[in-house]
Amino acid sequence: MSRRRFPGLHPDAYTADTDRKAMEALQKVPLLPQVVQKFHEIGWDRWMYCYNMATAVRCGPRQFGRLYGIMRECCEVLDLPEPELYVSNNPFPNAFAGGVERPYVTVRSSMIDSLTDEELFHLVGHELGHIKSGHMLYHSIASVLIPLLDALGRRTLGVTDVVGMALVLAFLEWSRQAELSADRAGLLCSQDFTLSATANLKLCAGSTRMNDEASVEAFLDQSRAYQDVSGLDSVGKALVFFLYGMRSTHPMPVHRTKELERWFLGGGYQRVLDGQYPRTPG
After folding, report:
1. Would 16 disulfide with which of 27, 180, 216, 221, CB 3.0-4.6 Å?
2. How many Å apart are CA 167 and CA 157, to the nearest integer?
3. In sequence order, what are the residues at sequence separation of 6 or more whose Cβ sits closer than 8 angstroms to the Cβ of residue 186?
4. In 3D, which of 126, 68, 120 has the Cα closest to residue 97?
């Protein structure tokens, strides 16, 4: 498959409005500058980088060359310098991007087993979207936010620590919305909505011996039904978010798939494909 390249692509080309608004809200929380400063003082970014390097295999032309080639092509599509790429042994399918000073992407072995090479373009593109959008600082802070607040001497889980809890909730909300932007970057790399939706389906259902019976169309119907619920079902949906979703760093899988479909059908994807996108100066 010959993929389009998007020279000079600016992150605004695929950033969700909800991501942008959540970031603005996060940056207004008074405690944020202190947390960012403490993150740099403690050197958590270096620790996390060293831990990842010590527990995963770094990819390159002579190590998992096929996966490395997928990442290289995704970087060309998004016009992004190559980060480091790793594979880790983990039975729970997932991938993540990390590293503020030295960005990297780590793909779990079970994720490689679950997805085809073409579907991996969406997964890798998603993680590269985080890096290109400059999410790494806040993503890294979010992953160690509670210890950082403890390091500042605040009772992070106490009901009286309103500012600390406000920061936690703001981080979680931004993290969920940032995933929607990264999904769009994944679609720009897969350049096939069905492939991207199938990757989300497999991330949600996992990999089983019945993979051949999975239907992306049925999954999309499910995501539309979830989005359009009314009456008592809408109350249940709100309760699910309050009890589980609000404390999660990722949106519900069916919700994020529906949001990606909304961007695709709304013409945002096609505009980028046609070269109608904001470009980075210079």
Report:
1. 180
2. 12
3. 121, 122, 123, 124, 125, 126, 129, 196, 199
4. 126
Buried b (16+ CB within 10 A) or exposed e, 191-210: bbbebbbbbbbbbbeeeeee
CA separation for the pair 109, 104 (Å, rounded): 16
The reported pTM is 0.90
Buried b (16+ CB within 10 A) or exposed e, 82-112: ebbbbbbebeebebbbbbbeebbbbbbebbb
Q: What is the pLDDT of residues 152-179, one digit of tens each?
A: 875 444 434 777 888 988 999 999 999 9
